[in-house]
Prior knowledge:
Blueprint (H helix, E strand, L loop, with lengths): L22 E2 L2 E2 L4 H22 L7 H21 L7 H17 L12 H23 L17 H13 L1 H34 L1 H38 L2
Helix pairs in contact: 1-2, 1-3, 2-3, 2-7, 3-7, 4-6, 4-7, 6-7
Amino acid sequence: MAAGHSPLQQFEVRPIEGLPPLHLAGYDVSFTNASLFMVLTIMTISLFMMVALRKAGPVPGRLQSLAELSYEFIATTIRDNAGKEGMAYMPVIFTLFMFVLFANLFGMIPYSFTVTSHIAVTFAMAGFVFVGVTIIALIKHGLHFFSFFLPKGTPAIMVPLMFLIELFSYLARPVSLSVRLAANMMAGHTMLKVIAGFVVMLGFLGGWAPLALLVALTGFEIFIAILQAYIFTVLTCIYLNDAIHLH
Length: 247
């Protein structure tokens, strides 16, 4: 397959044509297609919530119902995975969920850009979650937080080894959280691009089978986009629960 038609070309970060390049302290900070779609994602979420709740009433309309269902869905997720104390962090978790969800769904639009397929974006979000829950744990529990890395009943001879294993597992959280999301988005979109290429190559007569498969996989990929936003949120709630309750 020619380099110009590579299925990985869709993930290339490029400056927006027509805009002047920007450099800061020797680094290229130009406004890119990734930047554009992150801004579009935030603007779309903001517009959706403002329009949906602008004329909120006791009998909700379609958009208000959708906004309220989204809010209650995340609230239930937090209560189930982090307890009532976790509701204090509802605004942050709801924002993360909506950003990942809309960014994933934006990526399903032809000729768009999937920002959540880039580890730089997902690791930034995962790092924010990791640092945030660690700070919460230290503020709430002080030095007792470090008991989290030593399971109860550990034999004295195993204490150093168990502490290192638990510490490594804890430090790996932002890596696993970010890689899971980015890998799923990249793999799914790459597969769709490859199958779409077969449709074009086989033409009108021979392309029906891959076209049918492409339609089915597109529906499946939309489901994966929603599921990955939910998984990211659930894992965030689980990490928050560990920070609050140390178990």
